[in-house]
Amino acid sequence: GTTCVATCPTGTVNIGGECLACTSPCSECKTTQTTCTNCISSPTQYYLYGSTCLSTCPDKYYKEDSTMTCAACNTTCSRCENYDQCLSCPADKVLYNANCLSSCPATITIDAGGYCKECDAICDGCTGTTSTCIGCATGYFLYNGKCIQNCEVTLYFNAALGTCKPCDSPCLTCNTASTTCTSCTSGQYLYGNQCVSSCITGY
Q1: Is 54 helix (H, G, I), strand (E, B) or coil?
Q2: Tell me: the pLDDT tens digits for 144-167?
Q3: Which residues, including other chains, have CB under 8 Å from residue 88's CB and lie 6 or more apart?
Q4: Residue 5, SS3 per DSSP
Q5: To the nearest whole percent, how much of the chain has pLDDT over 90?
Q6: How many Å apart are CA 189 and CA 3, to the nearest integer?
């Protein structure tokens, strides 16, 4: 039969003096059957966005499980996991460590197209690509943008620059300086730490 009540029960709304059921996925509503104030949680969890229930929150909003609402991201994010953990950024920002920045941190990352990519582990800073090093981790030497464990045979380690540098001709191999020869190119002879075209008298 029909029962008169002072207030419509939860899940219904007073429309023209009659308590009518809220329209799913609203679990509670006001004014109209589709103006949601709470959302169903089974079989699918819905989240309140304004007065609408959504299973997925729109860009710039995230699912706030404590209130079952779509809550706004930090204003710098275009998508986020929670308020201050960005998943993507606007076109004028780049993503780094879940933050949206104006530019990638210099020397430790490169801009990989909307996000910052860490330099290779053996690099102590990079430029252009993650493997184009500007310095090297301990135990590595820099040569032509690469970090190598040992200077190649025709190179020497320049301690002042912290890089491998080529030996000057006619040195074939050298150490400590480009002209401190330890061996010579064909037709040259090692005299002390110099390469000469002919041995001096007595040698």
Answers
A1: strand
A2: 899 988 888 888 888 888 888 999
A3: 77, 78, 79, 95, 114
A4: coil
A5: 66
A6: 115
Residues pairing with 196 in the sheet = 189
| Euclidean distance between the first and the last CA atom of the chain, given in angstroms as a whole number | 126
Is 65 in contact with 84 (CB distance < 8 Å)? Answer: no
Task: Name residue 42's amino acid.
Answer: S
Cα separation, 135 vs 130, in Å, equals 12
Give the C-alpha separation, 153 to 131, whole Å. Answer: 23
Q: For tokens 């920002």, what's the residue?
A: 93
Q: What's the CA gap between 43 and 147, in Å, rounded? A: 55
Q: Distances in Å between the alpha carbon of 171 and those of 135, 155, 187, 201? A: 26, 10, 11, 21
Indicate the Cα dihedral angle 76, 78, 84, 87, nearest 10°. -130
Percentage of the chain surpassing pLDDT 70? 98
